[in-house]
Design brief:
Length: about 170
Amino acid sequence: MTTSAHLKKLLMQRVKKAAEALATEEGKSRAELEREGEGWVDAVLAGLTESGAMDDTAYATAKARGVQDRGGSTRKVAAKLASKGLSQDQVREVMAVVKEERPDAEREAIVALVRRKKLGPIRAAGERRANFQKDLGMLARAGFAFDLAKSVLSLATEEDLDGFTTER
């Protein structure tokens, strides 16, 4: 599953490769073949969209939820969606929908990442202090806000992570 913009990009790469190979055989210029191929690609994408087989909003919403479930920050989700060819307006709309559905998504995501990477309160007590800066850097590179990262890493035990997503 992907967005229509990303699928068009992939299909146009194939069209360009084919146009390059066929330009001399067909007696048409490479540019003519590419324009013809682009028309075909647009027609296929229109058919997929009309039939409901391709829905950028549904894809983006599912992708956003999936990335956050695996510990991706809101910033990471937005970057992933933009890389799939969604406009900034589409990304904002999807992020608003996801935030409305899951107001604590950022906290849930950071807890998921901390658990998956065994950071902060999951580490042995003797290792926490020595790895605090390293863990903080990892969470920052993952796109989480400094205050949120610092607060989750300051939790005393793994059990405290369970209550972290609901407290404010």
